[in-house]
Write a structure and sequence with these properties.
CBS domain-containing protein, 48% helix, 141 residues, elongated, alpha+beta
Length: 141
């Protein structure tokens, strides 16, 4: 299964903010959209990603104010991305080795979606269910 197949099921909706937004504004959008990370996109260019983990480690633990801090101060700029044709095994390996939970999907340097560890796990479970069903029908024939 590929990233594109996940996006075709999940959808390609992407939420983004600007690096000049406050962290509080970013958290508000994340809460409203029920997402764990948000992309920072400026002029169609992916500039970074901000996750709940970034907030916890770079604002809360350092006793900073989310209403005074800007996204560019805490966002991750070294963003790990994938392409629509990448397979799930590759995504899992990236998420594991790079210790990230979200992978923006780029096509021709433009963000066309984002997948999370949850999306990958769900897809793998569905593939395993299909395999089990196929094997069961083979055995019972």
């Amino acid at each position: 299964m590929t990233v594109n197949q996940i996006l075709s099921t999940k959808g390609k909706e992407v939420y983004s903010i600007l690096s000049t937004n406050t962290v509080y504004e970013a958290l508000t959008v994340m809460s409203e959209k029920n997402i764990g990370a948000i992309l920072i996109i400026e002029d169609t260019v992916l500039k970074g990603v901000l996750s709940e983990r970034d907030y916890a480690r770079k604002i809360v633990l350092k006793a900073k104010s989310s209403k005074k801090a800007f996204v560019h101060e805490i966002m991750e700029t070294d963003v790990v991305t994938v392409s629509p044709s990448d397979n799930l095994e590759y995504c899992m390996e990236l998420m594991s080795t790079k210790r990230v939970r979200h992978l923006p999907v780029l096509e021709n340097e433009i963000v066309i979606g984002i997948i999370s560890i949850s999306d990958v796990v769900k897809a793998i479970i569905e593939m395993q269910k299909d395999t089990i069903q196929h094997l069961n029908s083979y055995i019972t024939q």
